[in-house]
Design goal:
Strand order of the largest sheet: 6-5-8-7
Largest sheet: 4 strands, antiparallel
Number of helices: 26
Distance between the termini: 93 Å
Structural class: alpha/beta
Helix content: 40-55%
Radius of gyration: 36 Å
Shape: elongated
């Protein structure tokens, strides 16, 4: 009979015998076998223990000598576990496993712990070639105390005892490789899941402390648990996760690796695995990065084909450039190298990968975007060579930094880049990117002033784009003015120094900078963060919400500076508000927004000339789409013809726009734009 089915019979027997005190049902969590999905039964059995409680103080002292990432696991979870440690049951009652080498007399008074094959042979008088149970269970050892023969205990070791023995067992220490073991112990670092604070991390430390009174590792990286999308444990039985092989076939192993490394898992938090997240890494990180690489290769080929210049890259022979964006991306690259080396030395993956991904965004969305004309040779040959050299240098460095995280795409790119690298540049084998060391940091290239200036420029452009989107003003249509307002004159000077990029990217006529917010009649407005304040204030939320809406510009500025404000008897944090800017309607048609404490105003008024230019840019867009549809490359020559439908009255605006901006269209499509019929 199944043990749980016996409950009713036991209750009946107790009732019949008059010994029933209480019968009822209690709902509580209960452990189930993960294979058979049946309840587990607790049963007290004899076992063999290691007296860990006697080692508690030494364990805590040795834990203090180790460096953990993240640190809270060491100071809280693991330290608490050690402080409350219990004696460790190391025996298991099963057949398969490593036999516990204890030979015991029938009365349990005499115990011999055998330390080697040689010792077992000497004590038993038998030849031993196999340590599995079937080969040694029959061996006996004569008692030295007159207790007959000693027999091996039937238990085998807990497999965690074996995992904790890993540093010694892998070297067959102390029987062999003593010098090799001593040279590599303790380990430089290990990495495992957070559940191993009660598993591998613990058993390693217990055995090392018991044997040598020292920790078995210097550094530990603790990872979180990867859960199914519904937050439950991944289960083969439930099939609540996508097949990893299919995920890698669809999106590539690099996408999966980067998704996992840039996740809460590397901070010892749980990750709800979403296949869409892997897809987003491919779409938002790897493809833009690959497109930048492809654009570089296209322009190296174009240099050779159109300008008869064979490009060769050599770090020792840099091409000088006075271009501010070249200086910026090189400075940013070497700042990144320094950051990566410092953070990797501290085992902080959770800071490194986000910075690498941010760098890819800056490379593709800023450097390549703002330098397309130079890279394509549309400025002059000298500028083209300088920009191509810069982009090649940055991509090569980026690939070397990313190789440990995305080994496949970096190797693929490197095999092509390698063809253009000077044969004398690398010492030693350079046939694979994985043979190369990380690039060296060059402090002389780093220019913090340029990095600051570009950061201001980026903030202005990003805020301007947000304002265009909010007011449904496509970037193709020019606007009159963008205004930057900031009390810091350095910020204003930084923006003015890169005015040409701001004007071009936002497609505006002029940039105005000012330190006087009152001149444009701009004021701060605030709304409560319902999620934060509503949960905290509950019934008082409604009146405080109304009071927040009435806060003046000066009150909000004071609150921003102090960080909080008392409102109707409650302290409200500035971070608990949604703060925005509002422009007085009498001050013109400006729209306002801020980013990173920089206030940007956009003049949203348009005139006919601006509308015509926007239409001309729409025409350019349609031509480029036709070029793409025909699968043409940028170097392919094209001829463009157009014809208006005279019956369509709406074509008058388009006809005027095309004729008044014909030069703009021809420059953009690199072809005559003719109203003559196609031949």
């Amino acid at each position: 009979m199944y043990v749980k089915d016996a409950d009713k019979l036991i209750i009946k027997h107790l009732k019949d015998s008059g010994r029933m005190v209480l019968a009822g049902t209690v709902h509580h969590s209960y452990p189930y076998c993960w294979r058979s999905d049946t309840p587990l039964i607790y049963r007290a059995i004899p076992g063999w223990f290691i007296k860990v409680t006697a080692l508690r103080d030494k364990l805590l002292a040795n834990n203090d000598k180790c460096y953990w990432v993240p640190e809270f696991v060491k100071e809280k979870r693991f330290k608490n576990w050690l402080s409350d440690c219990r004696d460790w049951s190391v025996s298991r009652n099963r057949y398969w496993g490593t036999p516990i080498p204890l030979w015991v007399s029938d009365d349990g008074e005499e115990i011999v712990c055998v330390g080697s094959i040689q010792e077992l042979q000497e004590l038993s008088g038998a030849t031993v070639t196999d340590l599995h149970r079937e080969s040694i269970d029959h061996l006996t050892i004569p008692s030295k105390c007159g207790k007959g023969t000693l027999k091996r205990v039937p238990e085998v070791f807990d497999c965690w005892f074996e995992s904790g023995s890993m540093p010694y067992a892998q070297q067959h220490y102390p029987f062999e490789n003593q010098a090799k073991f001593e040279a590599n112990f303790p380990a430089e670092f290990i990495a495992e899941g957070i559940d191993q604070t009660r598993g591998w991390f613990y058993t390693l430390l217990v055995l090392s402390t018991a044997l040598f009174d020292k920790p078995p590792y210097k550094n530990l990286i603790v990872t979180g648990m990867v859960l199914a999308g519904d937050g439950k444990k991944m289960s083969k039985r439930l099939k609540n996760y996508p097949d990893p092989t299919e995920v890698m076939d669809k999106y590539g192993a690099d996408s999966l690796r980067l998704y996992m490394i840039d996740s809460p898992v590397v901070r010892a938090d749980s990750l709800r695995f979403k296949e869409e997240g892997v897809k987003d890494v491919l779409k938002d990180v790897l493809l833009p990065w690959f497109n930048a690489y492809r654009f570089l290769i296209q322009n190296i080929i174009r240099l050779d084909k159109e300008d008869n210049v064979q490009f060769t890259f050599d770090e020792g022979k840099p091409v000088s450039s006075g271009n501010v964006m070249d200086k910026w991306i090189l400075s940013y690259t070497h700042s990144l190298i320094d950051f990566v080396k410092v953070e990797m030395a501290a085992y902080r993956l959770y800071t490194v990968v986000p910075r690498l991904i941010k760098f890819i965004e800056n490379l593709t969305n800023w450097y390549v975007r703002l330098n397309r004309a130079r890279l394509r040779g549309e400025v002059n040959l000298e500028e083209c060579q300088a920009s191509v050299y810069t982009l090649f240098s940055v991509l090569l460095t980026m690939n070397r930094l990313m190789a440990p995280f995305t080994p496949f795409i970096t190797e693929m790119m490197y095999q092509n880049l390698h063809k253009s690298i000077s044969k004398t540049m690398f010492k030693g084998d350079s046939d694979s990117i994985h043979y190369l060391m990380l690039p060296k940091y060059d402090a002389s290239v780093v220019d913090h002033e340029i990095e600051r200036r570009v950061a201001v420029m980026q903030s202005v452009i990003e805020t301007g784009r947000v304002l265009r989107d909010r007011n449904t003003l496509p970037i193709k249509y020019p606007l009159k003015e963008v205004v930057l307002v900031d009390a810091d004159s350095t910020v204003l000077d930084d923006a003015r120094s890169l005015e040409s990029y701001i004007v071009s990217e936002l497609n505006i006529r002029k940039l105005t900078v000012s330190s006087d917010k009152q001149k444009y009649d701009v004021k701060l407005t605030a709304k409560p963060n319902h999620m934060l304040l509503g949960k905290r204030l509950k019934r008082d939320f409604k009146p405080i919400s109304a009071a927040i809406a009435k806060l003046t510009d000066s009150e909000l500025m004071e609150m921003e500076e102090t960080g909080s404000r008392s409102i109707l008897g409650h302290v409200v944090e500035f971070s608990e508000l949604h703060v925005g800017y509002e422009v007085n309607s009498d001050s013109g048609s400006y729209a306002a927004a801020s980013m990173r404490n920089i206030l940007v105003l956009l003049d949203c008024t348009t005139d006919q000339g601006m509308m015509d230019e926007g239409l001309a840019r729409e025409v350019v867009n349609r031509v480029q789409k036709l070029r793409k549809k025909a699968k043409l490359v940028p170097t392919d020559k094209i001829s463009v013809f157009y014809k208006f439908d005279g019956a369509d009255k709406n074509n008058a605006d388009l006809m005027r726009a095309v004729k008044s901006h014909q030069n703009l269209i021809e420059t953009a499509v690199k072809s005559p734009f003719s109203g003559e019929p196609a031949p």
